[in-house]
Amino acid sequence: MNGLAEAAGSFTLTRWVSRKSRADFERWQAAALRRFLDRDLPQAPFYRKPPARLADLPVTDKALLMARFEDFNIHGLTATDAWAAQADDGRAGALTIGASTGTSGNRGLFVISEAEKYRWLGAILAKAAPDLLWRGMRVAVILPQNTGLYDSARKSRLVKLAFFDLTVGPESWRAALEAFDPTVIIAPPKILRHFASESFRLRPKRVFSAAETLDPVDRPVIEDFFRLPLDQIYMATEGLFAVTCRQGGLHLAEDSVFFEFEPAGEGLATPLVTAFRRQTQIMARYRMNDLLRLSKEPCRCGSPLRCVDEIVGRMDDVFRLMSQDGPILVTPDVLRNAVLKADRRIDDFRLVQTGPDSVELRLPPMLADDAAAAAHQAVRALLEMRKTAATVKLIRAPLPLETGRKLRRVECRLGRAR
Ligand SMILES: [Zn+2]
User: Which residues form the signal peptide (predicted)?
Assistant: First the structure.
């Protein structure tokens, strides 16, 4: 396997597809999906034979994939072996094993081949920074752990890639990051914001928020500091799902994933994804935990790939409350907006559902008391309007940078929604 050829092939394909009309793109995608259903999917024991149509396949999710891990990969690798490999050097023979961060028991595992790793790299370069590639780029990736995906890039001559481990804390690698002088930075928004507040000496040409939901409250702080528009890479253990284009549109990675959408109310949808270019771990009609708001308009850049207006948060973080009319759901964006719109001085908060009818609002002590009271009142008014009897407790406490877990400003701690 020639890694560079795989990456270059994927880069070229990704660019080529992005110039098609929507109708041509859909024909290309339908053929690629059909090939996947006929040739790749049946290799996984869970499936065995090609379905007549994608819709004939059952919907899958993380719980099912983890419970029957060996039936979804073509090498019969068991979850036990994969966890052992992941804890060691992330390798199982020629395969790379990675895991998502998360609470124990809720972590996802993935397994990919060398060829897939390079194809992933080619695709991400083609989407994220095609114009920078030929001038030599230095990419700093700052994520909670080394997922194994990024090792492939370190070896390439066109791209210098450095990985910085979030879990050990930014102060331990600040000097190394500044010396590396990255042209592209990929990091969770809370870390980009930390760079701003601590005045890290960085001068990237492009900055991507990744791995956590980008809250509108973080965007201006980060953009002002870097004097650049902030772009997004929406990726998860399950793969690469969307990347911002040069016109600012957040395009779904429909060139490698077929998306179906389940309505989640309030104009939001949760995706079912079929990764039709993956051949090692088969992922078909896999239900993601994310809430997306789809764009109605195509992007100015002319790409046929559909856009997402916003990744609103996770389905797990929807508040589930009791109202006079029965159980209700309140989505994270509605809750977040209630807090932020209460007072312009609020630029950080935590809103947590801690019990069936209890909610905690945390605001930092330096925020003015009248702003805190306004936010408290706004959340109470929202919940009253939805006819719930939930109590909202205001807590004034510092909101420290937590590097060991994903930042969720709106969080439901009742356990899983499904
Ligand atoms: Zn675009």
Answer: none
Residue among 169, 204, 208, 1 at smallest CA distance from 96: 1
CA–centroid distance, 140 to ligand 1, in Å, is 24
| Single-letter code of the amino acid located at 52 | A
CA 199 – ligand 1 centroid, Å: 31
Per residue in 25-66, pLDDT (tens digit) is 999 999 999 999 999 999 999 999 999 999 999 999 988 999
pTM of the full predicted structure? 0.85
Radius of gyration for the alpha carbons in the chain, expressed in angstroms and rounded: 22
Non-local (6+) Cβ contacts of 292 within 8 A are 261, 268, 269, 270, 271, 308, 310, 311, 312
Compute, in angstroms, the gap from residue 359 CA to the centroid of ligand 1. Answer: 39
Distance 18 CA to ligand 1 centre (A): 9
- Ligand 1 center to residue 248 CA distance, Å? 6
Cα 34 to middle of ligand 1, angstroms: 27
Alpha-carbon distances, residue 125 vs 119, 205, 257, 371 (angstroms)? 10, 14, 17, 43
- Output the CA 232–ligand 1 centroid distance in Å: 12
Res 106 pLDDT > 90: no
Tell me, rounded to whole angstroms, the distance of Cα 284 from its chain centroid: 18
Rounded-to-integer distance, Cα 246 and Cα 210, Å: 16
Residue 60 DSSP code: B
Measured in Å, residue 306 CA sits from the centre of ligand 1 at 9
Model confidence at 417, in pLDDT bands (50, 70, 90)?
very low
For residue 208, report the distance from its CA to the centre of ligand 1, in Å.
15
Q: How many residues does the chain have?
A: 418
